[in-house]
Amino acid sequence: MNQFHWNGKPLSVQALDDGLWVSPTTEKVSYPSAHSKLISTLEEGSFWFQHRNKCITCIVNRFPPDGTIWDIGGGNGWVALGLEHAGYPAYVVEPSLDGAKTARARGLSPVFCAFLEDLGLPNNSISAACAFDVLEHIENPQNTLESVYAKLKPGGLFYITVPAFQSLWSQEDVLVGHYLRYNVKSLVSLVTSNHFEVLYHTYFFKYLVIPAFISRKIYYFIKQNPYKKGHDKVVMSEHLHESRFIQEVLSFLSRNEHRRLSKGRVDVGTSLLMVCRKPLSEATD
Which of 70, 186, 233, 285 has minimal Cβ neighbours within 10 Å of its Cβ? Predict the structure, then answer.
């Protein structure tokens, strides 16, 4: 079978391998390939990626989809894998071939190496989509949001995470290809201008706000560049902690934040999560 069909329509992709489909259209992605490969080696042992998955799953449990979640910009498939383990089928749509191959190697299927706009999905045909730490890599996210909106069924859900607060902007954002950090007001404005309804929003990683401000702002102010020994070393030191004490503190703080999210929301954090919906009354031609 050389074509993938959705709702009876063949998509604009070709089979590269079993479970891996590729669009012939390729564009530049504002995310360094080397960083993607590094992250793929850290995700399983990183408190940050583990906690983000738990926060995402927690909110998806509170706002469950009515069908498969299409993971837009799904990277190495780490979040999609977490969603599937929680009982939510997820299809990965990742424009980077390296990321798509890693997602497939993790057992996810199907995986599409493509941009959502290039798949040829019928309008009003999917129940849910997500973009976890994706929009900040897009200089003009309007086209992506318009495409997601068109493909969603009326009542379909769209889950988003983005880095929070422009006041935390640093060299790290530049190195990983960010264009912007968001707050609730700016993200609400972006999604509602594209006709979505906002059902819920929360910050998370509250316990990282002060450490992030110190490490990424104050160090630069006093000219102590943390990246002079290499970006990879900084990333590894932030995600992997050998100290048992630090691990236990991070675990305690993560559990506490997860409990808060299971019932309510968090008022500040280095990341922002939002659940949006395409209005039930709307369909896209």
Answer: 285
